[in-house]
Amino acid sequence: MSTNKLEARALTKRFGDLEVLHEVSASISEGEFxxxxxxxxxxxxxxxxxxxxxxxADGGAIEVDGRAxxxxxxxxxxxxxxxxxxxxxxIFDNTIVGLELAGRMSPEDMAxxxxxxxxxxxxxFENYFPRQLSGGMRQRVNLARALAIxxxxxxxxxxxSALDAQTREIMQGELQRIWEEGRKTVLFVTHQxxxxxxxxxxxxxxxxxxxxxxxxxxxxxxxxRTMATKRDPKFVALVDHIWKLIEHDVRESxxxxxx
Length: 259
Description:
By secondary structure, the protein is of the alpha/beta class. The chain contains eight helices and ten strands.
């Protein structure tokens, strides 16, 4: 049996004649924070959706804690780009949606959910509605909702992409703090190389379609990290190294989109 939290072996995915992923393999350890970066269209989100069970692979296998998976499950929580909150439900009721679907509505689950809202900085906002919150606050609800089901693996698909630059910086620090509290195993998709380096233990660098892993980059920077970390020459060198790996593919991708 695998000793890793997640094992993905030779995952392949096609949409018609288009090969999106080509034999992608990755191992993620318990409590590890791993980011995926690469040019648009390289299959990062597809890879994440296959692991979540929202899409199926055409080839290969996935295991969580040594168990083969083939569909969605409570062992995996997904944080989408959009917060997708239900506008007619208050913040607490939005947070417990996953628990309701799982039939887990015990007093212990409710108490834990309130603690999660406190953890993400939303204590006192339980009775507010999504329209009353900023974008950053709504994404905190989104994160609390995913954590409420107590997943083994937290999958995050560019959760900060819609936020302004300043809010994004704050949310990076908050996510690091929340991760330090619970040490969930995280797989995080982002287009921002500095975000990936700041948050991660490792960065998986994807090549342009068909998606495949070019390199696994270990981020050996001390934790906890602060905004000052981003000025550290070692941090800058890691960002520069990853950019050089994908620069050609990114330029090709942009030219294809706007050509």
